[in-house]
Amino acid sequence: MTKLENISMIKEANIYFDGKVTSRAITLADGTRQTLGVMLPGDYTFNTQDAEIMEMMSGELEIRLPGEEWKTLHTPETFNVPANSSFDLKIKTVTDYCCTYVEA
């Protein structure tokens, strides 16, 4: 899906890692929560509460999911992150992403 309609958005940005990762939180008409953001090159570790579906819309990165080895992803790619876990990213180029939260 390249266009989102009938959404609500929180105006205040989520800013992480000294501004190198930013996002905006939105809620779709059906109640699905997402964030739309940009990650600048760097190494990051993220913690999850809910399961997440991460969709890369542009960029290149390396990812290490729980219990897995590092792997390189190129756009377009989607990956799933389990709830209550953490994952590591090495962002190689500016990366545009959409994160969908999967509530249990």
From TrEMBL:
Question: What is the E.C. number?
Answer: 2.4.2.1, 2.4.2.2
Any one Pfam family here would be: Ppnp
Entry keyword Transferase: yes
Keyword field: Glycosyltransferase, Transferase
The record lists the catalysed reaction(s) as: cytidine + phosphate = cytosine + alpha-D-ribose 1-phosphate; thymidine + phosphate = 2-deoxy-alpha-D-ribose 1-phosphate + thymine; xanthosine + phosphate = alpha-D-ribose 1-phosphate + xanthine; guanosine + phosphate = alpha-D-ribose 1-phosphate + guanine
Record's signal peptide: none
Q: What does this protein do?
A: Catalyzes the phosphorolysis of diverse nucleosides, yielding D-ribose 1-phosphate and the respective free bases. Can use uridine, adenosine, guanosine, cytidine, thymidine, inosine and xanthosine as substrates. Also catalyzes the reverse reactions.
Family stated for the protein in its record: Belongs to the nucleoside phosphorylase PpnP family.
The record's PANTHER family line, in alphabetical order, gives: PYRIMIDINE/PURINE NUCLEOSIDE PHOSPHORYLASE, PYRIMIDINE_PURINE NUCLEOSIDE PHOSPHORYLASE
What name appears for this protein in its UniProt entry? Pyrimidine/purine nucleoside phosphorylase
Species for this entry:
Sulfurovum zhangzhouensis
Recall the taxonomic lineage recorded for the source organism. Bacteria, Pseudomonadati, Campylobacterota, Epsilonproteobacteria, Campylobacterales
